[in-house]
Structure formats: C-alpha cells, structure tokens
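Inverse folding, one chain.
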C-alpha cells in the first residue's frame, strides 16, 4: 500500500515538530495546565458532548446530548434537530453548512433570512428501507461529497443528487479520515478503506478484525499509528502491523481510549474513558495526564479538538473543558497537594521546595505526576529559602529552620525570621534578618547555630544585601534604607547610616533593593536609583528607569544567568531581555494572563534555571516556561446580532452569518432604537476580554473599554451610520474592527413621499398628475437600470468563463509543446550517448586487433604505421569535441546539471564530472568503462573517489544522489 504525498508531507512535518518540542518529555508542563471548565448549567445543555469543531469565523460547535451547541466566546446557543434527539457528530463543510448526525437522523444547519440557524434533514429523503439505522458517529467530506457513517450503513450526499447508500456485509465500527483517505473498521474482517463506494480490506488489516479502533492518524512517511480502545497502540506500514511501545507502561495500564488526535506540535492527545486527557510524544513518552485530580470536571473524555489558537477542547461525560495547551504558564496549587499563598521556592537536585503561608512543601520533580508533601514541623508562614553548601535554610514566622532529610528543625534564635545572607569572605557565618533586628548565625558540620543578636538595632529586617565594600544594606518598606557596618570580630554593629528622601530618594516609603548584574539598585516609589558613594546620595539610573512608566513602582526583580530580568511592578509583570549590542527589550504582553493571580502581599519571583521561573501566586505558584514560545495570533471580533428595541418586545433583525454578509442595511424609522450584541473568538479567559465600540455619525470617538458584550442606541435620527466594535484580550492584543453599515430612513412625515404629498395637495390636479408621471418614470427607470445591470452581469460572467477556458487551453498547449521539446532533447541526448558508446567500442576493438598484429610481429615500417593508427584511435576515443557537444545537450536537458555540480563541488576533476553525468544517465558500469576508456575496476575506483569528494554517507546510494541532484 502507498500513502498519498500529502499524508507523507504532513507526517514528516509533524515528526520534525515532535522532535523539536518534546526533547524533555517530563517538562511539557512543569505544573498543571490552565484549564477552563464549562458546567452543563453554564451552557444549558446536556452533560455529554460527543464531537467538537470550529468554523471559518472561529466559532465553536459541539455535538451535545441536547442538540448542537454554538459558542462565540461570550454566549452559548443551543439548536435542536428534533425533540429529544442527541447530536453525535458535527462537521463544517466547505459550503459553510453545519452538517450534523444524530439518532436515526442526519442533515445540516444553515442560516435563514435573519441569520438564525435552521435545520434541514437529509435522512427524510431516504427510501424507507434505508431509514432503519442507529446513530451517525462520523461525518467526512471527500471529493465534494459529504459522507455520514453509522454502524450499519454509509450514506453519501452530494448536493443536488440523490443520497447513495453503501451497505457493507458486516457491521461497522468507528471510521477515520487521514487527509483524502477514509478508513473504517469492519467487524470480523478488519481495517478497510473506502474505495470507489466500496470498502476494501487493507493488506494486514485483518489484524484488527476483533479489535475496536479509537483513531487512525499519520505517524511518519511510512506508517500510520492506530490507537485501539482497549488493545494498545500499533504502527501500520501498509502491509503489516507492529506494536507501538509506550514507555510508561504503568500509566497506560487498563486505559480505555475514546479518541486520539495529532496536535499541531506533532504530539498526540488521547481522550480516555477512565484517565482524563493524556498527551504522548512520537516516541511513546507520556507528556501529560490531566484528570479530575488535576482540575477536570470528569475523568471520561469522549472527544477532543484543537482550535486555531492551539487550545485543546474536551467533550466530557459531564461538561466541557478547554486546556490552554500552548500557554507557557502552568499552575502549582492545591491540585498538586500544595496549599496556601506562594512566598518562597528553591530547587535542590530533583526536589523542589516551596514555602507558603501554610508551611514548607517538597516534591520530586523527576516524575511526570508531581505531588507536594508538607515537610514535618514546618507548618506556618514561610518567608525565604536559602541553599548554602549542602544545607537548606528556611526563614519562617516561628524563626530560622534547618531542613534536613525532609524535616524542618527550629533553631532557637529570634521570633520571626525574614532572610539569611552569607557574610562576604565567610563560608560558615550568616546574618539573619529577623522581626526585631539582626542576628549572627553559624553553619558548621551541617548544623545551624545561633551566636548572638546584634544590639542597638531593632528594625524589622526583611530585605538584606551586602555591597562590594562588605557593608550590609537593609531596605525597610516604610522607612527607607540602612547601611550597616560590623566590627572586625562581628561582635557588634560598628555604625548604622540611615537614608531617606533627604538623600535623593523620591520618598521614604516603598524603597526596595535588588542585585542586578552584581550591582545593588534601589527601586523607589517611582524610578530606579543607584547609590553614589562619593556624594553619599542616591542618583536616578536613567537606563533602567526609562524602561518603566513615570508612576510605575518596581516591587520585585530577579536576574537569570543570561541576564534576563523578570520583574513585578504595581502596573504589570514582565521581563527585560538584552540583544548582543546591549539594547533592552521589555516584554509584558504574555504576563498579563497571570497578573491578577499573583501574590500581592509579598511579591516573589524565583528563577530555577534559564527556562523555568516561578511566581508566587495567591494560590500556590505560577510557573513560566521561557523556552515555550506562545505566538499571540490574531483573533476576530464579530457582530453576533442586531435587534430592534423600539417596541414592547425586542425584534431580531440580523444575526450570525447574515450580519457578516450584510451591506448597507436599510431600516425604517420605527426601528431607530437598536441593540448590538457582539463577541470575540478569543477563548482564554473570555471574561477578561474587553470591547470598544464606535457608531460613526453619532459617537464622537471610540468608547471606553468595557467587558459588556452589547450596546444599545435609542432614538437614532435618520441617516447613514457605521457601527464598529473591536476587542482587547488578556494579552493586550486588539482585534481588527469590522464595520456594519446601516441606514435609518426618516419618518413618513419627514420623508420625500410626505413632502411630495404636501406638494400634491397644494397643487391639486396638476400636482397629482405630475406625481403620477414622476412615479411611473422613476419606476421604469429603475426597472431599466436593473435590467441593464442584470444583462451586464450575465455578459461579464460569460466573458470570464470564455477567458478561463482560453487560458486553460493555452496552458494545455504550452505544456504539450514543452513536453514534446523535452522528449526530443532526451532522444537526441540518448542517441548521442549511444553513438559515443558504439564509436568507442568500435575504436577499442580496432585498437585491440592492431595491438595483436604488433605482438605477432611484422615489418618495422608497418609497425610504425600501426602505432600511428593506434594513436589516432586513442585521440578519437577521448575527443573533447564530442564531449563538448554532449555537455551542451546534457545541460540543456538536465537543468544545467554540470554547472551546478561544479559550483557546489569545485574540487571535482574533469574525469569525475564525466562520471557524474554518466551516473545521472543511469548507465551501467560496463558502458561507463567504454566511455571513459578505462577498465570496469577503474570505474569502481573512480566511483569510490567521487563519493569521498561529495562527502556522502555510506548508507547513501551514489547513483540515487546524482538522479535527485
């Protein structure tokens, strides 16, 4: 069996993506992905959903127990087939019809005159003998036909033609489309392909005769991957089947697979009956397993779909979920056993320690399913974690702790510890910042000891850093800064200098301290400052300060090993990167997604490595994967409906696709009060999407941003209006504003007709006659114009059709002429080659006979003549004239092959160039030996040397290389 080229290309692309994105299977998500659950009460549908798809406007359509669900990012709508009929499948056709299949029925939805979706049954047109089928589980489009699959029959619908019924000889299971091919499992027979209205059993397909297949997907250029419901995963190469190895066998034990899809990044997503969502890479590594424990509403996933924004939609047994699969953010929270607000984190080997207001938690990060456990004796508020040597220190509300063997040991010192800092030049002495001052601690032989508290300094010391001179700086958020000097033996504080707004700072409050590029900087209430030791004052760092707004206050900053700076301010969250010239770039769009989730008590950032960053959150931590680039793709804002609110009840005027296609809609004056309902196709935190609207010729400018998805205008004067609406998502991306133009006609008493009536009443009979003539003239003129436009339109269509036919005929003739010329050149080249071979064979034969004569003796004069003849023959065998002529023809036919070869491999000798051309002609070794006037062994040696010149791998065929070059 051979697969279509399109399948092979898609599979190769998927494989490349898979290799590049899943190098570390365990880090697909550091924590748990962000999940948005939709309960049945929210979308007002049945608990079960069976199929999901998306149309060209990016609206979501879901086959549900109660009917067809439509979701536009703001509003859920339900459309029923018949009373009580469940919808099992949905497909958006190229004609924008929404094809659905349900219980003993199938058909399509299309908008009526006002835009509301209306159902049309196709099953009703079937003969009675073919109406007895169960449910339509799959719908596909192939060669312009819509194909509905049941477990009994296959129904093929082509618009305008009767429905074809394909009745197999055995029951069917689920079916699958891989690009242009449609596969299905025929029970008791095996995996088959739909071929010309017949099901043809695939070679080796009988392997699946009694195995229920969940999905068939492309794997690589030679194989399909087949996921069965209960019997494992297999690779099929068109002839035979072999098992696909799953590396974590324990995780897949007793798994029941309902559906599998190939993701945009080349990985596989599995909808399971009992283990929620499962992600695999192409090597069988488990990347992710998300279930009820990780935040899903249900462990049973019936169907799965990836939308245009790379979100993963799950149809659950009880609800619907959306997983932000492409997001660089994941969550470490209660779903992983972690409780409380995040304040501190530290990675030590494979273990990740995190501190919250509930205590210290630890998790082994080596497994794919991470679980945090509370470290014994650590309950309470954790403020800071330090790793000094092999020792883990914890600053806690109850005091300083040493964490050993996953157990916290309190060291009696001070009531309430903020932070530890190692003394410069010391390996075993630390300063502890406590609630009531500073303490000296020692760390020897894996034991933390309290030495003494420094007297005469009682300030709460939360932020500590040593400068290059060995002075300790302490930042107090409500007072300012302190510079502290210790005496030589560290027995007491030698001096304390206090700095505030009198020393160049903009205020005494909200002064922070950070170490960036091994220098101390001081973010103040506004601006970032450095300390000028010569002036004993703080001066504004213009380079840093210029990156932020004039009223922006930096709360937290952390720098990674590559110089990237992550920050949290009172306005935003983001990072600063530097190019090779040192030019900074501030990025904050992506981080808008997490800003409201972060800890606003004591903001916290911990850089684990260059790709993994933790932010303290209100619930646990938010993980940011810096190596996972999320593309902020454009999205659309659409006008969902236009309704009149002039009467006692609203009257729907336009909705759905009819609004999209509406041009210059005219409304009577009675409909001059309107309600516009709109939405956006961005599904990540849609409640945070904001809208801005503008009614041209009524509003003076764009409105303020609002989360409302509708706008009312009342008592609009007559005139022409253009309503525009655009959306701004959580990342700050603004969609394009699509205009809707409409005209409100004036009331009758101000209309042209009314004024004409007034004139007629004043002018009596003459006016009435003029009115009738004028009315008839306008009507006739309009009819003539419409008739003329209709005829011109018909002529335009005829001209375009004739032009298209002419262009197609010209292309066909041009292609035929080109093919004839190519065939002629190939024949000339072949004849030339055969002539050369024959000539050389003849000359070689004559040469051999003459040499035999010389060997057998003869007169001296005759021998000289014979040698002269042999030299002449040698000259003819290696004639350059023949070669030049051959080279000219050869380059013409084979796309300048020789010149391209010489340009790419300039070290090739003329003999190797000739050998390459003969290999391109696919000549035998014997023929090449004749043409090059060497032995067959010589040809083999020349081939070996040519391979070395071309640096070919031993597995690559030299002739195939030349044929493809």
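Residues assigned per position:
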């Amino acid at each position: 069996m051979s697969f279509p080229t399109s399948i092979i290309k898609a599979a190769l692309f998927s494989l490349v993506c898979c290799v590049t994105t899943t190098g570390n299977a365990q880090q697909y998500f550091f924590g748990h992905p962000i999940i948005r659950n939709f309960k049945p009460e929210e979308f007002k549908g049945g608990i079960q959903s069976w199929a999901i798809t998306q149309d060209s406007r990016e609206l979501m359509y879901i086959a549900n127990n109660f009917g067809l669900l439509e979701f536009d990012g703001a509003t859920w709508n339900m459309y029923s087939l018949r009373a009580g009929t469940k919808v099992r499948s949905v497909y958006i056709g190229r004609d924008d019809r929404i094809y659905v299949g349900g219980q003993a029925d199938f058909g399509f939805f299309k908008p009526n005159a006002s835009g509301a979706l209306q159902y049309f049954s196709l099953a009703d047109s079937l003969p009675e003998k073919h109406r007895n089928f169960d449910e339509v589980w799959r719908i596909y489009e192939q060669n312009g036909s819509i194909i509905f699959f049941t477990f009994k029959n296959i129904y093929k619908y082509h618009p305008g033609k009767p429905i074809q019924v394909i009745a197999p000889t055995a029951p069917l299971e689920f079916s699958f489309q891989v690009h242009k091919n449609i596969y299905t499992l025929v029970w008791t027979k095996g995996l088959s392909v739909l071929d010309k209205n017949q099901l043809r059993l695939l070679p080796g397909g009988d392997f699946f005769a009694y195995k229920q297949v969940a999905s068939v997907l492309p794997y690589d250029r030679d194989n399909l991957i087949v996921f069965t419901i209960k019997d494992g995963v297999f690779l099929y190469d068109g002839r035979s089947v072999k098992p696909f190895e799953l590396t974590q066998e324990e995780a897949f034990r007793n798994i029941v697979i309902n559906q599998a899809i190939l993701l945009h990044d080349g990985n596989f997503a599995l909808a399971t009956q009992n283990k929620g969502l499962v992600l695999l890479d192409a090597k069988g590594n488990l990347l992710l397993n998300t279930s009820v424990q990780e935040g899903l509403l249900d462990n049973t996933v019936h169907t799965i779909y990836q939308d245009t924004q790379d979100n993963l939609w799950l149809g659950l047994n009880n609800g619907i979920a959306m997983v932000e699969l492409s997001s660089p953010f994941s969550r470490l929270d209660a779903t992983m056993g972690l409780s409380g607000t995040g304040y501190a984190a530290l990675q030590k080997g494979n273990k990740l320690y995190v501190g919250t207001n509930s205590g210290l938690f630890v998790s082994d990060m080596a497994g794919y399913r991470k679980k945090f456990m509370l470290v014994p004796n650590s309950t309470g508020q954790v403020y800071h974690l330090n790793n000094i040597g092999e020792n883990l220190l914890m600053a806690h509300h109850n005091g300083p702790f040493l964490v050993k063997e996953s157990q916290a040991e309190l060291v009696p010192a001070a009531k309430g510890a903020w932070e530890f800092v190692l003394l410069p030049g010391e390996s075993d002495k630390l300063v502890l910042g406590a609630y009531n001052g500073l303490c000296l601690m020692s760390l020897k032989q894996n034991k933390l000891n309290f030495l003494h508290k420094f007297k005469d300094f009682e300030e709460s010391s939360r932020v500590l850093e040593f400068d290059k001179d060995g002075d300790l700086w302490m930042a107090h958020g409500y007072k300012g800064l302190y510079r502290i000097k210790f005496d030589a033996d560290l027995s007491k504080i030698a001096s304390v200098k206090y700095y505030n707004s009198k020393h160049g700072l903009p205020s005494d409050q909200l002064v922070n301290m950070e170490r960036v590029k091994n220098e101390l900087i001081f973010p103040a209430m506004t601006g970032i400052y450095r300390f000028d030791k010569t002036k004993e004052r703080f001066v504004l760092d213009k380079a840093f300060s210029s990156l932020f707004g004039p009223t922006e206050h930096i709360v937290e900053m952390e720098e990674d090993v590559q110089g990237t700076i992550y920050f949290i301010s009172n306005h935003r969250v983001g990072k600063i990167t530097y190019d090779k010239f040192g030019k900074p770039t501030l990025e904050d769009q992506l981080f808008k997604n997490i800003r409201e989730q972060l800890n606003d008590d004591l903001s916290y950032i911990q850089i684990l490595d260059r790709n993994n960053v933790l932010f303290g959150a209100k619930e646990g931590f938010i993980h940011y994967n810096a190596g996972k680039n999320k593309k902020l793709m454009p999205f659309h804002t659409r006008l969902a409906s236009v309704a009149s609110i002039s009467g006692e009840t609203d009257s729907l005027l336009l909705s759905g696709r009819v609004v999209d296609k509406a041009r210059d809609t005219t409304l009577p004056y009675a409909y001059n009060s309107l309600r516009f309902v709109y939405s956006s196709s961005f599904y990540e935190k849609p409640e945070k999407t904001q809208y801005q609207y503008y009614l041209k010729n009524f509003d003076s400018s764009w409105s303020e941003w609002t989360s409302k998805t509708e706008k009312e205008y009342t008592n609009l004067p007559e005139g022409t209006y253009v309503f525009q609406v655009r959306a701004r998502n959580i990342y700050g991306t603004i969609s394009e504003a699509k205009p809707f133009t409409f005209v409100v006609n004036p009331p009758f008493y101000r209309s042209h007709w009314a004024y004409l009536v007034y004139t007629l009443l004043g002018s009596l009979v003459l006016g009435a006659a003029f009115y009738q003539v004028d009315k008839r003239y306008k009507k006739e003129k309009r009819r003539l114009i419409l008739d003329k436009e209709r005829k011109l339109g018909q002529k335009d269509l005829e001209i375009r059709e004739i032009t298209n036919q002419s262009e197609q005929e010209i292309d066909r003739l041009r292609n035929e002429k080109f093919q004839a010329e190519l065939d002629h050149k190939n024949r000339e080249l072949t004849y030339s080659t055969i002539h050369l071979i024959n000539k050389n064979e003849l000359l070689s034969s004559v040469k051999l006979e003459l040499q035999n004569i010389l060997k057998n003796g003869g007169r001296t004069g005759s021998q000289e003549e014979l040698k002269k003849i042999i030299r002449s023959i040698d000259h003819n065998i290696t004639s350059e004239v023949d070669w030049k002529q051959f080279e000219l023809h050869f380059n013409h036919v084979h796309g300048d092959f020789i010149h391209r070869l010489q340009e790419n491999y300039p070290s090739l000798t003329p003999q190797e160039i000739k050998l390459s051309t003969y290999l391109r002609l696919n000549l035998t070794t014997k023929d090449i030996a004749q043409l090059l006037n060497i032995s067959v062994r010589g040809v083999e040696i020349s081939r070996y040397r040519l391979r070395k010149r071309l640096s070919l791998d031993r597995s690559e065929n030299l002739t195939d290389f030349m044929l493809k070059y």
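The chain has 13 helices and 65 strands. The CA atoms of residues 130 and 774 lie 62 Å apart.
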